[in-house]
Amino acid sequence: MNINPLPSRARVHSAPPASVPPRLLASWRRSENYGVPLDGVQPVFTGTADDGSLFTECGRDVLSDLRTTLDGEPVSLMLTDAEGVVLERQSGDKDLIKALDHVNLAPGFSYSEREAGTNGLGLALADRMPSLVRADDHYSLSLQGYTCAAA
Description:
Radius of gyration: 16 Å
Strand order of the largest sheet: 1-2
Shape: globular
Distance between the termini: 38 Å
Largest sheet: 2 strands, antiparallel
């Protein structure tokens, strides 16, 4: 019988239940139930993204315009489809691009909660509302160097 109300992810950080927001705790539990590994994300590669869709073309234009205002900042902008597959990724920071490649946060990879655990993109899609997942709030330890806001 498990008397600890927190999933193993929370026990790793010894977070008391009161300090974990219910939305984040629910996402950790879903991630655990999906079998997402704690030590590293293993997002599924779905193949090349649909570069010809109006959604992708418009999204790419918006991201490009926004990226120019953030050049030199360690920020990346993403566009995903409704399933969490990354369609577009832009950043002016080459080191950040390499780091994101290391965790497969790149076009064609799925960052839904089911595939990557608690993360900003996956949580926004799961709850259908904006999200902010700070470094230590990610389910997977390999994502703890990042903070992600998504809508």
